[in-house]
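Researcher: Next entry in the queue.
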Amino acid sequence: MASMATSEMIFFIATLVLSVSVVGVLGGQTAHLSLGMQNSGQGTSTQIQTDFQIINDPSSIPYQNGYVFYIKNTGETGIFFTNTTVNVLINGTLLSGSEVSMISPGNTSEIMPSQVGEIVVHVPISSGYNEITVSVSAGISKSMEFQI
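Model: Structure for this entry, 148 residues:
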């Protein structure tokens, strides 16, 4: 009888050790999943709060020492508006340096909510239908087909 009680105690202790191990693994995975969801939620929140629109008339792009495209901040946070934080592509070609200028209200290098900034493209654009794509540092991009 004593040997039977000893075997049952060994099985009971083994079951407890196994249960504690499973709980530890599941607890660690739950914490890892929770942290990943929190980080993903913060990134999504930033993207939701950051938004803009290209507000030009696609059939009439103004020319003032370059083609002028108007960008309106329709989000809830400011958008940094410089050559290093905004990417501009015309027909898939990335413009950089002196090929493009960013003009923000008051030359603050930032467009606050409801404000409009200007992107001035200093390269020749072929006549006909073209496409501009503007991407900001928060990962938001907008495109517009226009006619010259």
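Model: The two ends are 97 Å apart (CA to CA).
Researcher: Noted, moving on.
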